[in-house]
Write a structure and sequence with these properties.
The structure is a homodimer. Chain A is α+β, with helices and mostly antiparallel strands. The first copy, chain A, has helices spanning 28-39, 92-98, 138-149, 159-162, 188-194, 215-231, 233-242, 247-254, 275-285, 321-327, 336-349, 353-365, 374-386, 389-394, 398-405, 427-435, 448-451, 467-481, 491-496, 498-512, 518-539, 551-554, 568-574; strands at residues 3-8, 13-18, 53-57, 71-76, 83-88, 101-107, 116-121, 124-129, 153-156, 170-172, 181-183, 197-202, 290-293, 304-308, 314-316, 412-413, 416-417. In chain A, the strands form four sheets. A six-stranded mixed β-sheet of chain A has the order 2-1-6-3-4-5. In chain A, strand 7 and strand 8 (124-129) form a beta hairpin. In chain A, helix 6 packs antiparallel against helix 20 (498-512), helix 16 crosses helix 18 and helix 18 runs parallel beside helix 23 (568-574). The two termini of chain A are 35 Å apart. The mean pLDDT of chain A is 97.
């Protein structure tokens, strides 16, 4: 029985509601964005009582479909002021789906300052005060909750979220209870913190409420997708062997790896911080180290890793491409150990490691510390954990840090720091950064696939030509994919292998009795984006927000010495449907 | 010979240009806003090389017309991200006008980090490096420049502007070289600082290049206006006797004096911090103390003051209503001495005292210090001067401070703190705050005149009815008035005394050979506002930005227990022309 769990933090109630027919074929981002648009006043304060935080598994989450364990978290963003969805792996999406929960909608605010955990199981849902984990990092929080509730899924916030820092993310635990999976972007952890909700603990023991209309067709389709994932070299070899950080060398080589606060596209320390280097370190150090680590059961790609310290104990799990870059190349830091230490601190404090790295780069530009000084960066990051005034600046993200110190070279769109691809050197992803309703995200319109990896066709990354269309196609397709629960990385296989695409769509059709085609993907993806854009317009954004930071129009980026030159009129066409 | 002085901080040149015909009948705000809209890319970084800072005397500045010494400063605002004009009294507007300068346009940025003064006189204009006043407060800056250049007009920035704090204002000196006149709002001091321009020193010795087409008609009209100002009780008695702070008791009585971060409309310490109390203190202490102090030659109202310390030495000049309220009632502080000390520090550091008081109120709400603790507030303010991380937070204004500490009760519109009238209790001025293109300003649509002071008619301040029209009428008329160089306070006389209005318009017609009527005022005022709105739309704002902070819609304000209930549709109609 599919249902919506409505959690009212004012009355401290958690009640199940029927799913309105209009939400039946929505999941993940499509559902979080629609509920936010339907229920949240766009001009409300994102940390006030009228924002809502929505958690939704994807359409096929909880099934045996491969790589279908993404959880979407949505709200009005405390970072951008616009609508936001961020999704993560980990074990929560499947467990929430197993309980027959299509979405959890958290609303209101406690009358008294108190932190709660929401416990959800077959027996029902209840809010429990958790003063004992107030102010605790995510590692201790997760350990405490497993000790109490068993091997539950945990969706939680660190002290950054409790402190309403607008760079706070939402953690979901992995199979070893590590907190390193994050719906990290857009400050959703602060939105959750503003509700007084420290964690959601989900126990799916004894229940698998995931009805599938045509199980046999589903099985066949899931196998088609699995086979394609096992066939494509990126998903079957590259990613499990080297992890996502394999991109460090690739992007640096392409001149598109933002280095030292987006002042160069090539990092001399790339090799030392690459996926290959991580794999070498894992092999050399042993201990807990591991490549080919899955973030949830049913993952057949296993792109993740566990990075060990020199003594073989845990340094950080995982170190993915984006944090590796943000805390590494973007800060001029080439020590994997320093990067892993910072990444661990981000995961523990509960801040977005990408935004944190961009903020640190800005702080270095401001002269607070030197580019390349890993030890100083770790010290500054510890101030975030300690909540000092300086920590509160950096903990608000890159745009905020820039303003505090008068830095104008600030790589943000709609107040959100740019991820690990330089718009001036990879112009399709740059087009996504600026036009996406959610600020500078890379996953939601990953033109890099075509521009750099030659997946789904080829495009010159340095040319502005055709980038409006390329970004639009990726954004529309991803708005659909983000609604399914599938990991974005299946796209390598579904773009290049027709049976993989058929399998992906086939699982959904088999599960819901639909007969969607590629046209439906476009229709649904466009509708999601329209909903998100409409919310932003009502929230106060006009198309003047869809622009690259000024310095990228004027300052040529080495080594190609190009500027961002996709014309404004082209940008305005991207989502004009 | 009317001309535009273009100051290029990259090339370090200052060159005179002819005035384009389209600018001939523009002055003050009309001219700054038009030049900004014509020359500044709306999506540029406000502290980057492509913003421009424009200084313009009004249409009749430099003449013998009474109270015509306002100087407008315009730019893309570092605080709001939209277009901004802020104007101030002091001696600069007249001197700039005497030199035949219609506007100064400052553009570019120095190639090397260096501070300059722009020296302007009959002999020409030149940029002079001034490393010796870098980092100096405005009091020392002004004293240094007078020692060097004689009794020049000084338009300058304190260390807040040098540090690019987005709450930095632009100071203009008064006849005693005090720096307490500020074009304070919107962070224009940071825009000036980003140009490397510490000060403009204007010497009008030996030149009076202010042509008047019909001198006799001008003389008659100016006298009509002067007579009206001398007749109206507000401009002839109330203001010179008690200063602008006479409003403290009036607004508290009306329940519209924002108290303790906008949590009440009535302040129990009103009487102790009122204009009457200032007058009493001036009388009792003597020394430099003075009421009825003019901010520029030719002022016949003389609403300003010099507040002495207990020993008769200078505490602050002036203490006006807005800073008195911001640093007083809004912080729950009822000591005039503490308020004067803080006001002095704001003037010296170069921050907007209004925004600073709103930021302090937010910091108190966050628990950093207690409401009412003047000593702690002074200490926190000193951190702004010292540039500590905490000082850099507070020095960015109220919205920034709120975000740093997770405060959601933040009285701002478009990122700018609200001045001294509570929107929930004085709904016409609230309507101005939210719809004005420049964020929450009071002067640019002073519906208070009608709602509280019964000038220009009467309106119930607590009722939302008719407030769209009332605000529109005031905004349109003020957009014109802000273009003339006249002080807003002439409106008391021009609204109530027909010959005063005739005199005001008559001076302009006599000077320029126009035959403008009331309809032209509307036409011109509307055009200025249209230009400003268009800039903001291109900069990224939609009408969702024209909204009151959420808490004011839901939280009733004592003592009247009213919320802000002017409907959104009404707000959207205000400037829809």
């Amino acid at each position: 029985m599919s249902k919506i769990l409505r959690v009212n933090m004012t009355d401290l109630t958690a009640t199940y509601e029927d799913v309105p027919e209009k939400y039946r074929l929505l999941g993940g981002r499509g559902l979080t964005s629609t509920i936010v648009a339907d229920e949240v006043e766009p001009t409300c304060h994102p940390l006030g009582p009228h924002n809502k935080v929505v958690f939704a598994p994807g359409l096929v989450s909880g099934t045996a479909a491969p790589n279908s364990g993404r959880l979407s978290v949505g709200a009005k963003s405390p970072l951008t002021g616009g609508i936001k969805e961020s999704n993560a792996g980990g074990i929560s999406s499947q467990k929430i789906a197993h309980l027959g929960i299509k979405a959890m909608v958290v609303e209101g605010q406690p009358r008294e300052k108190q932190l709660y955990a929401l416990r959800v199981s077959k027996a029902g849902a209840e809010l429990v005060p958790v003063p004992e984990i107030a102010g605790k990092g995510m590692y201790e929080t997760n350990a405490t909750l497993w000790a109490r509730y068993g091997r539950v899924a945990i969706v939680g916030i660190g002290l950054a979220g409790e402190r309403l820092m607008t760079n706070a993310g939402v953690s979901t635990n992995d199979m070893e209870n590590g907190p390193g999976r994050y719906a990290s972007r857009g400050g959703l952890g602060a939105a959750m913190g503003s509700k007084g909700l420290k964690a959601i603990a989900v126990d799916d023991a004894g229940v698998r409420d995931v009805p599938i209309k045509d199980p046999e067709a589903f099985r066949v389709a899931a196998k088609q997708l699995t086979d394609a994932l096992r066939e494509h070299p990126v998903t079957s070899q590259t990613l499990p062997s080297y992890g996502t950080a394999v991109l460090i060398n690739v992007l640096s080589e392409a001149g598109g790896l933002p280095t030292r606060n987006f002042s160069s596209g090539r990092f001399e320390g790339a090799a030392k911080t690459s996926g290959e280097a991580i794999a070498g370190l894992v092999k050399a150090r042993g201990g807990v180290g591991r490549m080919g680590h899955p973030c949830h059961p049913g993952c057949v790609i296993q792109c993740s890793n566990v990075v060990p310290r020199e003594d073989g104990t845990l340094a950080c799990a995982p170190v993915e491409y984006e944090p590796d870059w943000a805390l590494g190349a973007n800060c001029g830091i080439d020590s994997l150990d320093d990067i892993a230490t910072m990444n661990y601190l981000c995961d523990d404090f509960g801040v977005d490691a990408v935004e944190t790295g961009v903020a640190l780069g800005v702080a270095m530009e401001a002269g607070l510390l030197k580019f390349g000084d890993g030890k100083a960066a770790i010290e500054l990051l510890e101030e975030v954990g300690n909540g000092t005034p300086l920590g509160r600046i950096v903990g608000q993200g890159a745009a905020f840090t820039a303003r505090a110190f008068g830095v104008t070279r600030v790589p943000v769109v709609k107040g959100q720091g740019m991820p690990a691809y330089e718009p001036r050197a990879v112009k399709g992803i740059g087009t996504t950064y600026v036009t996406l309703p959610m600020g500078a995200d890379h996953t939601a319109g990953y033109a890099v696939a075509t521009e750099i990896l030659s997946v789904g066709g080829k495009a010159d990354p340095l040319s502005p030509a055709g980038k409006a269309e390329l970004s639009r196609d990726f954004q529309v397709a991803t708005a659909f994919l983000d609604s399914t629960g599938y990991c974005l990385f299946i796209s390598f296989a579904t773009l290049d292998i027709p049976s993989g695409f058929e399998g992906m769509l086939g699982t959904i059709n088999a599960m819901y009795g639909t007969s969607w085609t590629a046209e439906d993907i476009t229709r649904i993806g466009q509708e999601v984006l329209r909903t998100e854009r409409r919310f932003n317009e009502l929230a106060g954004f006009s198309k003047g927000m869809d622009r690259v930071p000024e310095f990228m129009k004027h300052e040529p980026l080495p080594p190609h010495n190009t500027v961002f030159d996709v014309p404004d009129e082209e940008l305005d066409r991207v989502l004009a449907f």
